[in-house]
Amino acid sequence: MHSKDSLDSASLLQQRFATISYFLKSMADGGFPIMLIDTGMIKCISKKSNCALEPVITGMENVSLLFSMDATYWSTFEQKMNTGFINVDDTQFTRDKFGVSGADIFLSGVRFQILRMESPNNTDYFIFSDKSSRIAMRRFNVKNMIARATQGGKISFSIPADPLLFLWRWQRGQFIECRQDIAAKMRRDYPELYNVPPNIKDNYASNLADYTQLLVKMRITPMLTGGTLLGWYRECGFITHTSDLDTAMLIEEYSEKLVETLKKNSRFKLIRILGIPDRLEFKIISLGRVIDLFIIYHNGTDGSDYTNGLDIDTRGKYIWRYPRLTKVCTGDLKGHLMFVPCNVEEMLTACYGNRWDVPHLTWNYQWWSSGANVEYGGEYSEEEMLRAVKYL
Questions:
Q1: What is the pLDDT, as a whole number, of residue 84?
Q2: Count of CA atoms in the C-beta half-sphere (13 A) of 241
Q3: Which residue of 198, 203, 301, 316 has the fewest C-beta atoms within 10 A of its own C-beta?
Q4: CB within 8 A of 233, min separation 6: which ones?
């Protein structure tokens, strides 16, 4: 004999299965392909091939499921929803400067939240528009899935092909625009800086994106930092006279797998490791350019972050202090998605001072002395240098 609660739960599950099935079928019949991007469902699905939906769709009074739909369908979709092609309780559209950004559709106790998914031309990423922010992530494949209920019944839908990577990227995906207004002013006020061939051409962004992908496979988040971060945010590109690339990663993401992977990689070749374990910096060469990979350490005393550098000629140790990294975001560098600190202006102010928005009008910017946040930390002994510099 079944208890009343179990019968009610089974009845609720059956009802919600029917509601979700009706909605998905109606969307498909109407020619509106949607993709499930709901984190709760994706976590469930990623654990086993047949996901039991009971905890997901009966665990709250009103269940909410998150989907996305390509931007090309939204105009027609809004028109058809206004004609009642799906029998729903209520529909609420949201808008941003790009048009309709999403819809909340309510039907029999289920909320279907659909976000607009853009595929910007000449880029390698998607953007999902939410009410308060935009989430960007590298373009990915999708796959079809079937979720089953233990009481019987199933729901078919599409999800990201690598659901765990999708969740990882979603947490780091908030999208920040570079300052196109400052970039335009820079070109207007300092034309002499742009009348010379740049040391790093725009198409190197593609190589930097592949470097990012390599590290992401190890679940490392390589963020733009230093002059590369400044060039992206202030000039929407590379600073013309800079000759190398600056990236940084969190110490908690570090493992020896990084070193072993880069040692074996012919395209992104690790050529030098600087510092002892609490002061690490990596030098990587790719297509004739050096990519610096700094490790971000955390100061438990004052809550700040710091990276390290070593002047081999003088044995000098240097420290760059930063405000605590609050969150990782994303940004577009010449059509390629990069990771950047969310508190980017705070980081740039720490490094370059309050006037980071104007160029350093000299070609002799010295990494060991010109930064506003650099400190001299003494020098290594000759014996320590034997451990602090490793050529590969």
A1: 87
A2: 12
A3: 301
A4: 178, 179, 331, 340, 344, 345, 348
Residue 35's pLDDT is 94
The pair of three-digit structure tokens given for residue 293, joined into one six-digit string: 């990979």
Q: Which helix (H) or strand (E) holds 263?
A: helix 256-264
Question: How many whole angstroms separate alpha carbon 124 and alpha carbon 127?
Answer: 10
Taking alpha carbons only, the member of 296, 306, 280 closest to residue 374 is: 306
H-state helical runs in 172-282: 180-189, 204-216, 226-235, 256-264
pLDDT digits (tens, 9 = 90+) for 316-346: 999 999 999 989 999 999 999 999 999 999 9
Domain boundaries, the chain: 4-171, 180-391
CA distance linking residue 274 with residue 289, whole number of Å: 18
CATH class, 4-171 region: alpha beta
Model confidence pLDDT, tens digit, residues 4-25: 444 466 677 778 778 888 899 8
d(CA 357, CA 22): 54
Name the residue with tokens 């800086």. Answer: 193
Provide the phi-psi class of 66: left if phi over 0, else alpha when psi is between -120 and 50, else beta.
beta
Burial class (CB in 10 A: 0-12, 13-18, 19+), 369: exposed
Q: Does residue 363 have a pLDDT over 80? A: no
b/e 136-167 (16+ beta carbons within 10 angstroms → b): bbbeeeeeebebebeeebebebbbbeebebbe
**What does the alpha-carbon distance between residue 118 and residue 296 come to, in Å, rounded to a whole number?**
33
Which token pair is 383? Answer: 């014996």
